[in-house]
């Protein structure tokens, strides 16, 4: 690249990084709204109906913001310009390391969403749903599904250049081992949920988001540990 072309690439890369940071801020704001709405619903004893209404609207806005953040962030992931600015094995290692760390960090945020889904699933299955249970019941499984898609490398299939950066013999072996671990956790968990359903069906329904979360978390943590061990040599 000549100097002018490099400046243009840097300008585009800077703009991409800024927009990705905005998406991350939107997702963080959505999570804050979700937690705030839950607290409002629980801590408004003077007027429970108003608390449920305001809390439900706030939680719904939080979920919408988080979904929008994830949707738009996919457009601003590292792309060909990023690759042109930083090439070589060092950059490949950096991208793979950041990918591993982001998957592990995601499991913590997904834990809160799973708690909300378990609570909502219990209300729906027991015949006493709350105002936002129909919405909250889906957020946990969505987060768990996204974790599994990231481990499998299917979360951004259109970016072929990043796919080449993230897929080599070592990372593919990590992926296979992580998915095998997730399959083992899912198999054991299904037996446990089945037994729970024989005793109390509502509890089994409520436990399904937790099982999905454990499956996804097992996959991302297994991948993270394998990557960390390889990094240490």
Summary tags:
mainly alpha; 85% helix; 0% strand
Mean pLDDT rating: 78
Q: Separation of termini?
A: 35 Å
Quaternary assembly: single chain
Coarse shape: flat
Q: Which structural class do the helices and strands define?
A: mainly alpha
- Residues in helix, %: over 70%
Number of strands: 0
Q: Assess the beta-strand content as a share of residues.
A: under 5%
Provide an overview of this structure.
By secondary structure, the protein is mainly α. The protein is 85% helix and 0% strand. The protein has helices at 3-42, 48-73, 80-85, 89-125, 133-136, 139-152, 160-166, 169-199, 201-232. Helix 1 (3-42) runs antiparallel to helix 2 (48-73), helix 4 packs antiparallel against helix 6 and helix 8 (169-199) packs antiparallel against helix 9 (201-232). The longest helix has 40 residues, at 3-42.
What's this, in brief?
With 233 residues, the chain is mainly α. The protein has helices spanning 3-42, 48-73, 80-85, 89-125, 133-136, 139-152, 160-166, 169-199, 201-232. Helix 1 runs antiparallel to helix 2 (48-73).
How does the SSE layout of this entry go?
Layout: H1 3-42, H2 48-73, H3 80-85, H4 89-125, H5 133-136, H6 139-152, H7 160-166, H8 169-199, H9 201-232
Helix pairs in contact: 1-2, 4-6, 4-9, 6-9, 8-9
């Amino acid at each position: 690249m000549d100097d002018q072309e490099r400046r243009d690439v840097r300008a585009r890369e800077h703009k991409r990084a800024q927009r990705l940071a905005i998406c991350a801020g939107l997702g963080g704001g959505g999570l804050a709204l979700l937690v705030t709405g839950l607290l409002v619903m629980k801590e408004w004893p003077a007027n429970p109906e108003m608390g449920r209404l305001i809390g439900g609207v706030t939680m719904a806005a939080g979920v919408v913001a988080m979904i929008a953040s994830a949707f738009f962030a996919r457009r601003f992931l590292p792309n060909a310009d990023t690759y042109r600015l930083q090439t070589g094995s060092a950059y490949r290692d950096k991208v793979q390391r950041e990918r591993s760390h982001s998957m592990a960090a995601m499991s913590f945020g997904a834990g809160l969403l799973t708690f909300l889904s378990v609570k909502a699933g219990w209300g729906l299955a027991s015949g006493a749903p709350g105002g936002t249970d129909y919405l909250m019941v889906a957020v946990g499984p969505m987060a768990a599904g996204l974790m599994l898609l990231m481990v499998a490398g299917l979360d951004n299939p259109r970016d072929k250049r990043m796919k080449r950066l993230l897929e080599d013999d070592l990372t593919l072996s990590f992926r296979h081992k992580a998915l095998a671990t997730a399959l083992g956790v899912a198999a054991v968990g299904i037996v446990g949920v089945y037994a729970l359903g024989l005793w109390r069906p509502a509890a089994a329904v409520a436990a399904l988001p937790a099982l999905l979360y454990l499956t996804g978390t097992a996959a991302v943590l297994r991948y993270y540990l394998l990557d960390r061990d390889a990094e240490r040599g």
